[in-house]
Amino acid sequence: MITALMPEERDSHIISTIKAYGKNLLGFIRKRVNNDADAEDILQDVWYQFSNLVNSEPIEQTGAWLYKVARNKITDKHKKKSETLLDDLFPGDGEGDGDTSSFKDLLMPDDSTPETEYMRNLFWEQLFKALDELPEEQKQVFIWQEMDDMTFQEIAELTGVNVNTLVSRKRYAVLHLRNRLQQLYQEITKY
Q: Residue 140: which of 96, 170, 105 has the closest Cα?
C-alpha cells in the first residue's frame, strides 16, 4: 500500500513500477490490439494514469490495478473503433427509417448481456462475410483504413497506389457493405 510520498519517493516508486511491470504489461496489451503503435499508446495512457494516481490515493495491489486499467483502455479503444466503423456503414444522415444511435447502443452497450453479445457477434460475422465478397483491393483498403487505423497516405506509401484510387476503393467497399448489411441493420433496430 502506498501512502502520500515525497516527490523523490514518488518518482522512484513510478520508475521501479515501470521496470517491474513494463515489459509484461506491454506484452499483455500487444496480444489484444492490432499493432505496436496502439499497444504503446495504451501503455503510455496506463503509465500516465498511474503517475497521476500514485500520490493522490493508495493502490493496494499495483499489478492488478495496472492490468485492470490496461484492459479498460483496450476495451475503450475497440469500442471507439467499432463506433467509427458503424458511423461509416450506417450514417445518421436521415436516409432510411433506421436510427443509427439505437443500432450503436445495441452493438456497443455499456453493460453486456447474452442478447447484446449475440447481436454483436452476429454483426461481426456478417461484416466479415460481406468483406469476403469484395474484390481483394477494396477489402484490403477498408480493413487497413477502418480496422488498422491507417491513413490513406500510409496505405498509398505501402502499396504504391495513389490516394484517389484508394478513396474510391474504400467508397465502393462501404457501399457494398451498407447494402449487404442493411437487412441485418433493419432487423436489429426494429426491436
A: 170
Cα-Cα-Cα-Cα dihedral sign, residues 132, 128, 123, 152? negative
C-alpha cell recorded at residue 165: 484510387
d(CA 65, CA 183): 43
CB 121 within 8 A of CB 127: no
The model's pLDDT over 82-119, given as tens digits with 9 standing for 90+, comes to 656 666 666 654 444 444 444 455 555 556 677 777 77
Q: Would you state the cell numbers that stand for residue 184, as one nine-digit string?
A: 441485418
What is the Cα gyration radius of the chain?
Answer: 21
Here the cell at position 99 is 436510427
Chain segment 19-60, per-residue pLDDT in tens: 889 899 898 888 887 778 888 888 998 888 888 776 666 677
State the cell numbers at 61.
495491489
CB 186 within 8 A of CB 171: no
The structure's pTM equals 0.49
Residues 142 and 174 sit within 8 Å (Cβ to Cβ): yes
As given in the structure block, the three cell numbers for residue 30 are: 500487444
